[in-house]
Amino acid sequence: MIFNKDTAEKTAELLLQINAIKLKPKNPFTWASGWNSPIYCDNRLILSFPAIRNFVREEFSKHIEKEFGKPDVIAGVATGAIGIGMLVAEYMGLPFVYVRPEPKKHGRQNQIEGFIQKGQNVVVVEDLISTGNSSLLAVEALKEAELHVKGMVAIFTYGFDVATENFKKANVDLHTLADYEHLLHLAVAKNYITEKELETLQEWRKNPSTWNK
């Protein structure tokens, strides 16, 4: 669920401007999963643009407090959301931790890096939601550490049905700055793509695992 329409369209426009989101229906990308895709999203680029990272930081902070109340801790999902999560925590004056995909194999074997206490309220910051599996592993680690996960916020989601189901099953409240639907609407309005390319992008989202194969 997006926070609101205005934020979704503004975020989508900024991501397109800096090529954090690339739309190439005629020359699709291949994801690590093996899926062919007419879209590629790399939100790490946001960190290189001060005005845009400040916009994302401030929108996250405003909406986190509105939707969840001020938490005790902000947690970033490694590695993509460490940078933006830290910026949000700094802006809100809160402690920050980050969550690895799995515990380290050496040393203290931490999966959660940073200082936490049982019973603390935490909001999780993520950069991108596809199926939601890796994001929810971070939530699971925080719950196992006996933290109360108030919800998750992310910069962008593809809006896959499987992600919706995964978050529903996990009983995790997800809010995003932008989503696929508002991105496509903005991309057509601003002439990033044609109406015909829009049709291709809409078809891909219906069955991304088998598209263009």
TrEMBL record:
<comment type="function">
    <text>Catalyzes the transfer of a ribosyl phosphate group from 5-phosphoribose 1-diphosphate to orotate, leading to the formation of orotidine monophosphate (OMP).</text>
</comment>
<keyword id="KW-0472">Membrane</keyword>
<feature type="binding site">
    <location>
        <position position="104"/>
    </location>
    <ligand>
        <name>5-phospho-alpha-D-ribose 1-diphosphate</name>
    </ligand>
</feature>
<keyword id="KW-0328">Glycosyltransferase</keyword>
<dbReference type="InterPro" id="IPR004467">
    <property type="entry name" value="Or_phspho_trans_dom"/>
</dbReference>
<dbReference type="InterPro" id="IPR000836">
    <property type="entry name" value="PRTase_dom"/>
</dbReference>
<feature type="domain" description="Phosphoribosyltransferase">
    <location>
        <begin position="51"/>
        <end position="148"/>
    </location>
</feature>
<keyword id="KW-1133">Transmembrane helix</keyword>
<comment type="pathway">
    <text>Pyrimidine metabolism; UMP biosynthesis via de novo pathway; UMP from orotate: step 1/2.</text>
</comment>
<keyword id="KW-0812">Transmembrane</keyword>
<feature type="binding site">
    <location>
        <position position="100"/>
    </location>
    <ligand>
        <name>5-phospho-alpha-D-ribose 1-diphosphate</name>
    </ligand>
</feature>
<dbReference type="InterPro" id="IPR029057">
    <property type="entry name" value="PRTase-like"/>
</dbReference>
<protein>
    <recommendedName>
        <fullName>Orotate phosphoribosyltransferase</fullName>
        <ecNumber>2.4.2.10</ecNumber>
    </recommendedName>
</protein>
<comment type="subunit">
    <text>Homodimer.</text>
</comment>
<keyword id="KW-0665">Pyrimidine biosynthesis</keyword>
<feature type="binding site" description="in other chain">
    <location>
        <begin position="126"/>
        <end position="134"/>
    </location>
    <ligand>
        <name>5-phospho-alpha-D-ribose 1-diphosphate</name>
    </ligand>
</feature>
<dbReference type="Pfam" id="PF00156">
    <property type="entry name" value="Pribosyltran"/>
</dbReference>
<comment type="similarity">
    <text>Belongs to the purine/pyrimidine phosphoribosyltransferase family. PyrE subfamily.</text>
</comment>
<keyword id="KW-0460">Magnesium</keyword>
<feature type="binding site">
    <location>
        <position position="130"/>
    </location>
    <ligand>
        <name>orotate</name>
    </ligand>
</feature>
<dbReference type="GO" id="GO:0004588">
    <property type="term" value="F:orotate phosphoribosyltransferase activity"/>
</dbReference>
<feature type="transmembrane region" description="Helical">
    <location>
        <begin position="73"/>
        <end position="99"/>
    </location>
</feature>
<feature type="binding site">
    <location>
        <position position="106"/>
    </location>
    <ligand>
        <name>5-phospho-alpha-D-ribose 1-diphosphate</name>
    </ligand>
</feature>
<dbReference type="InterPro" id="IPR023031">
    <property type="entry name" value="OPRT"/>
</dbReference>
<keyword id="KW-0808">Transferase</keyword>
